[in-house]
Predict the 3D structure of the following.
Amino acid sequence: MRVEILGEERRRRWGDEKKLDIVMSVGVNGATVTEVARRHDVTRQQIYTWRSELRRKSLLLPPASPAFLPVDIPVARSPSGMHKDADGLSAKVELQLCCGRSLRFGRNIDTAILTRLIRAVETA
């Protein structure tokens, strides 16, 4: 009995340079992992595996940790004593995270609490 396998061979060999190109294309012009995986005919999990592998080999830097930057926000006090911004709205800060989520919090939040909150949201 003779068996022939027809069609394209699914096992491919990828060099580190090609893996790095594919992994680095995630986020370029808003490209998601799913879109990049589809474009290169690999699974999403393969891209995540390559990302970990490239980090272990020190070919890909780990993501930057959150950094706090000073922001000037004009604040006026309302008759009730509640902080309001120039438009009369409550003084809140909105932080857009790299994972696509955002956090809104008051101006006086403790930085240690905010740091823990950012890490929790980004890993969720």
The CA atoms of residues 3 and 9 lie 15 Å apart. The chain has a mean pLDDT of 78. The chain has two domains: 16-56, 75-123. Residues 16-56 form one domain.
